[in-house]
Amino acid sequence: MPVDFIGLIATQDGSESTPATTALIDPAFTTRIARAHEDSGFDQVLLGYSSSYPEGAQVAAYAAARTETLKFLVAHRPGFVAPTLAARTFATLDQFTGGRVTLNIITGGHDVEQRRDGDYLSKDARYARTDEYLGILRQAWQSDIPFSHQGDIYRFEDFVAQVKPVNGTIPIYFSGSSPAAYRTGVKHADVYMFWGEPLAQIQEQIASVRAEATAVGRAAPGFSVSFRPILGPTEELAWERAEAILGRIGQVTAPRFFRNRDRASPANTGSQRLLAAAAEGDRHDRALWTATAKASGAAGNTTALVGTPETVAQALLDYYDLGVTTFLIRGYDPLDDAIDYGRELIPAVRAEISRRDAARLVAA
Questions:
Q1: What are the domain boundaries of the chain?
Q2: Does the pLDDT value for residue 200 go beyond 80?
């Protein structure tokens, strides 16, 4: 099975452990980090969503004009624009980029953050809205004749989009770890995304999603897991670097994008799961380290894989063996880490998968 690597780009440098040194929107840095990911062998880059940060589709358009093959996974929250407009927006972007757009659907797990954009629906109501929204998106991309819709949230008449995605539709990446998320996600997701938990917990989540997919008569989606690899030339140096990063978390005035205000008891299930894993111990499996999640309040994908490139590659392959074929990897030093991942980590994972595939062909 092929494996995809997703990175993360932003318009400003910095992270939970590294102070920002550029303006919030720095075109030169945006270009540099996008090209670094392309040159390092990443397939895609995620553009995250925050109520206070630059709008992802605009950033994707800028970065796509300065790259050639890199795809852009644009995080998008249903509910803040009409689905008919969203369908045209992303189809237009897909056309201008030559089919290099994918969508990460974020239903939203933080009530406070949602309300900053004027959304006061409950969590379950948000998932119901997402379900209706994504159904409209797919129909808008695929229908060549006008159609009308009257649902619980949206109503319109005689809509048809003249602009379509390059390949007829746009891949949907879906996030969420609650039962409501599973129920909604399996109806629409091409890839289901998880944050970096221990192997047993990821296996449990994969089984839950597959069971939900079977219940609705749909094939299971692909699976993605997100990590923050911390590499070193030796195990000892990797762990020294990891401890140094941990010491800076909380000391750096991080952008609001990275903060979790309710650190002890976050509202979203994904953060709760990361903190539960951290409560069981800092180290799990081959190389998973949860101390960074605990220190930051698990605001996003914050668990690390620590070790040499060989160790971390084997750790990623442990998840691959569970059925994970997409890895979102981003560093605590975003630009330099992306370059480092491209030197050894990404090639090591791909080489081992190619070796296994070749062995299977010989055996067959």
A1: 4-363
A2: yes
Which residue type is seen at 306?
V
CA-CA distance, 134 to 143, in Å (whole number)?
A: 14
Q: Which residue has the higher pLDDT, 356 or 300?
A: 356
**Is residue 139 pLDDT above 90, yes or no?**
yes
The whole-model pTM stands at 0.95
What SS3 state is found at 44? strand
Coil/strand/helix, residue 326: strand
Spatial CA neighbour of 106 closest among 124, 84, 79, 140 = 79
Judge whether 25 and 54 are in contact, CB under 8 Å. Answer: yes
pLDDT in tens, 281-321: 999 999 999 999 999 888 889 999 999 999 999 999 999 99
Question: Going by CATH, does the domain composed of 4-363 fall within 1.10.10.10?
Answer: no
* Helical segments of the chain, H only: 27-39, 56-64, 83-96, 111-116, 123-142, 179-188, 199-215, 235-248, 269-280, 291-296, 309-320, 334-340, 346-363
- Compute the distance between CA of residue 231 and CA of residue 14 in angstroms, rounded to an integer: 18
Residue 265's pLDDT is what? 58
Segment 180-202 shows an average pLDDT of: 96
> Would you call 73 helix, strand, or coil by DSSP?
strand
Cβ atoms of 232 and 352 within 8 Å: the answer is no
Question: Which helix (H) or strand (E) element contains residue 158?
Answer: strand 155-159
- For residues 20 and 335, the answer to whether their CB atoms sit within 8 Å is no
> What single string gives the DSSP state of each residue in 12-41?
S---SSS---S-SS-HHHHHHHHHHHHHTT
Work out whether the CA dihedral 172, 176, 177, 179 comes out positive or negative: negative
Q: Which two tokens stand for residue 4?
A: 């995809």
